């Protein structure tokens, strides 16, 4: 199994030099998030992930979760690791101090979640789902609900889930069958069955708080008739402790391709006692608070697993001896050269590095927007941040997971036949990553959301919010002595982006299928342009550091080289996505469905 080491040098480069988190924290009034505090959080978080979580990754995959008559047992060491995590205060890192949290910026929670996910993705699902549930309760719950549930969840004594889909409906939540019948005491009797519930049952906490989508008896049809309910496994008693068992049970757990140590459950509600959160028939709006948190977290999984794969691949490529370099022996004292000398291995390694580091920059930029949206007292700043978040969230989820899967596949490929063998650990990273493009809304649905709802639905407003940022950088750096070629390349694509959007929009006015046909290629095009923007920013900072003779020259030179690789070898992928997006729907919709039969 690859030995995970938190990439603190790269994380600090973004935090300190590219995005200047510290100035942003000061401007937002986050006075506790001092440079020393941030440094301590990163160092201690890295230690926990490297020393506690990473050693459980392979054993957890091999042992898996066990199911016995409704009882789920997590792999050896998981429960103890969670207790240690909770005791260290990590669950409350960015939580509201009113309920026992530390009140630090949300971006710090995201930085910590990157290290958790990279060291042990399955284990990270348990606190990750809890954080999402906490965000929904905090945003939409009553004061009593917040006091009852958030206090325990912040302590790590209780965990959370989101119970959305059912066997017959997938992502089409408007046709869910779970029902909520009002009771005389103001509670609701929740009946139905939910599937694919991550962390739905386990032995790591004393209570599990389910957030459940259900319909009232008089609910309107479709998504406008969905309500959200808190349905705890154990009902809180008068003292706020886990009391009487609720009518909630785990019917089974799924036997999955990957993330095998994360319990993916069928959860049955048999007139279970639930409590409305938010307004009746507005449940989907409430749940989106949690879903958006989860989508960003899922996007991070692409980065996390890609980072773990890269670390394994770079070590192996430097040690594995096979054949001689085409330009002559590079290790004449050895029977063969290390495979890192071969251009194709370099191609894969640099693709991994360029996508990982570009995705990290995108994730951290998004994290900074979360801070502004939550903490800024300036209405205009908050609105701008929220619009950018709305635009970037589906891209983070889909682009980062699709490219994360590509990266993990490259990592396995670099190992050759050994990559396909279980004990090396590289195939586990591929298996674990494969779910990320599927859950929290498939990447196809994310693409449709981006193009249909966010871009065309806003008449281009959300897109222009980002293209203006890119344009501003390109104008400022148009004559940069080292990077003006890259600047011109980015500027051309940025203009082309708007033209592509307009072309699809006009076609969609005649045939709505044009949006669905173009959406995936449109999202991937967008992702590559966005990463080019961040790579240009990183290169500009790296060059400034080199010119000033500051810091680690090798680190900054590697940034410049990787930026060059990205612009020359990866950014041209936009041309293929552009051509595909412009090709229209006719070529994929003209064949009658019955002609697909064998």
Whole-number mean pLDDT: 96
Helix content: 55-70%
N-C termini distance: 42 Å
The number of strands is 11
- Describe the biggest sheet? 7 strands, mixed
Order of helices and strands: HHHHEEHHHHEEEEEEEEEHHHHHHHHHHH
Instruction: Report Rg.
Output: 24 Å
Please state the overall shape, judged from the principal axes of the Cα atoms: globular
Structural class determined from secondary elements:
alpha+beta
Strand portion: 5-15%
Residue stretches low in confidence (pLDDT < 50, at least 5 long) are none
| Count of discrete alpha- or pi-helical segments spanning 4 or more residues | 19
3D structure, described in words:
Strands 3, 4, 5, 6, 7, 10 and 11 form a seven-stranded mixed β-sheet that branches. A two-stranded antiparallel ribbon has the order 1-2. The chain has a two-stranded antiparallel ribbon with strand order 8-9. The two termini are 42 Å apart. The model has no long low-confidence stretch (mean pLDDT 96). Helix 11 (379-414) packs antiparallel against helix 13 (443-456), helix 14 (461-476) runs antiparallel to helix 15 (484-510) and helix 16 runs antiparallel to helix 17. Strand 1 and strand 2 (71-73) form a beta hairpin. It has a domain at 447-588. It has 598 residues and is an alpha+beta fold. It contains 19 helices and eleven strands. The longest helix has 37 residues, at 283-319.
């Amino acid at each position: 199994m690859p030995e995970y080491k938190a990439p603190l040098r790269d994380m600090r480069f973004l935090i300190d030099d590219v995005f200047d988190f510290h100035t942003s924290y000061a401007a937002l009034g986050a006075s506790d998030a001092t440079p020393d505090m941030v440094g301590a959080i990163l160092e201690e978080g890295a230690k926990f992930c490297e020393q506690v979580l990473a050693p459980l990754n392979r054993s957890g995959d091999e042992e898996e979760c066990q199911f016995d008559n409704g009882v789920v047992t997590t792999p050896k060491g998981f429960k103890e690791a969670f207790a240690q995590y909770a005791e260290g205060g990590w669950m409350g890192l960015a939580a509201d101090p009113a309920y026992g949290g530390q009140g630090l910026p949300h971006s710090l929670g995201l930085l910590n979640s990157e290290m958790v996910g990279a060291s042990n993705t399955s284990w990270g699902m348990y606190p990750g789902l809890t954080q999402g549930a906490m965000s929904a309760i905090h945003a939409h719950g009553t004061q009593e609900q917040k006091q009852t549930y958030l206090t325990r969840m912040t302590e790590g004594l209780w965990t959370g889930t989101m119970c959305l889909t059912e066997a017959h409906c997938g992502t089409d939540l408007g046709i869910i069958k779970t029902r909520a019948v009002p009771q005389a005491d103001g509670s609701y009797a929740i009946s139905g069955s939910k599937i694919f519930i991550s962390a739905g049952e386990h032995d790591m906490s004393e209570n599990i708080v389910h957030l459940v989508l259900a319909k009232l008896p008089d609910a309107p049809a479709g998504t406008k008739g969905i309500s959200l309910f808190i349905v705890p496994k154990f009902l809180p008693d008068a003292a706020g402790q886990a009391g009487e068992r609720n009518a909630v049970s785990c019917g089974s757990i799924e036997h999955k391709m990957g993330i095998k140590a994360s319990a993916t459950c069928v959860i049955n509600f048999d007139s279970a006692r639930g409590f409305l959160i938010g307004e009746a028939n507005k449940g989907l709006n409430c749940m989106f608070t949690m879903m958006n948190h989860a989508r960003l977290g899922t996007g991070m999984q692409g980065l996390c697993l890609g980072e773990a794969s890269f670390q394994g691949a770079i070590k192996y490529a430097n040690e594995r001896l096979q054949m001689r370099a085409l330009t002559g022996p590079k290790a004449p004292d050895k029977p063969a050269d290390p495979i890192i000398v071969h251009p194709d291995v370099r191609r894969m390694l640099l693709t991994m590095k360029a996508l990982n580091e570009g995705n990290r920059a995108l994730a951290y930029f998004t994290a900074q927007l979360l801070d502004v949206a939550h903490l800024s007292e300036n209405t205009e700043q908050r609105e701008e941040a929220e619009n950018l978040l709305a635009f970037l969230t589906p891209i983070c989820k889909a682009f980062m997971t699709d490219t994360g899967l590509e990266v993990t596949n490259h990592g396995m490929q670099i190992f050759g036949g050994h990559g396909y063998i279980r004990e090396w650990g590289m195939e586990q990273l591929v298996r674990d990553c494969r779910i990320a493009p599927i859950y929290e809304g498939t990447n196809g649905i994310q693409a449709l959301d981006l193009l249909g709802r966010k871009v065309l639905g806003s008449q281009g407003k959300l897109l222009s919010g980002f293209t203006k940022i890119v344009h501003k950088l390109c104008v400022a750096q148009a004559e940069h002595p080292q990077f003006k070629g890259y600047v011109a390349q980015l500027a051309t694509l940025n203009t082309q982006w708007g033209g592509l959007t307009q072309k699809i929009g006009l076609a969609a006015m005649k045939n709505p299928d044009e949006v669905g046909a173009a959406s995936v290629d449109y999202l991937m095009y967008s992702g590559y342009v966005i990463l080019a923007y961040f790579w240009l920013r990183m290169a500009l900072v790296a060059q400034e550091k080199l010119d000033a003779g500051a810091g680690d020259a090798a680190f900054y030179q590697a940034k410049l080289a990787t930026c060059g690789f990205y612009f020359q070898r990866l950014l041209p992928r936009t041309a293929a996505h552009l051509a595909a997006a412009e090709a229209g729907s006719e070529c994929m919709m003209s064949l009658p469905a019955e002609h697909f039969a064998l």
